[in-house]
Amino acid sequence: MTGFKKSASVALLTLGLSILGVATVKLQNSQTPPQDKLELQGTIILLGLPLTLQGGMMAWHLYRDRQQAIAAMQQQQRDRLHALFFQQLLAHHGKITVMHFAMAANLSGSEARQFLDRKAVEFNADFEVSDRGDISYWFPL
Fold first, then answer.
1. DSSP letter at 97?
2. Beta partners for residue 129, in sequence order
3. Are 141 and 89 in contact (CB under 8 A)?
4. How many C-beta atoms surround the C-beta of residue 11 within 10 A?
5. Half-sphere exposure (CA, 13 Å, Cβ side) for 73?
6. Angle CA(60)–CA(62)–CA(65) in degrees, nearest 5?
7. Model confidence over 56-70: pLDDT tens digits?
């Protein structure tokens, strides 16, 4: 359905803008007879503007719907990460490493570290750095 709406939007915009463009050029031509100018004005008002507005509105609604879908997906991802974070904390008694969280959440190491760093600030976590440089986060439960 979205493909049809996109095609219809493009078609309406193209047709409407074409009518507006041709009619406007002919209206500005000094050799156009007055009767034709009245017909051209009617064409602009009755065809060009409505088609262009309808195509533009369809395009706007498609854009807005897409933005809402992206926002919903991002919220779903945030919710999933928060749930995994709390599950991992409970399973490991408040201790979590970047590697464990990255594996559980299917994130890259840098994404997991950024998430855990934000949560560490939010929940006043302590840090422990191993000899290899691995960071363990300790969250008070």
1. E
2. 135
3. yes
4. 13
5. 6
6. 105
7. 999 999 999 999 999
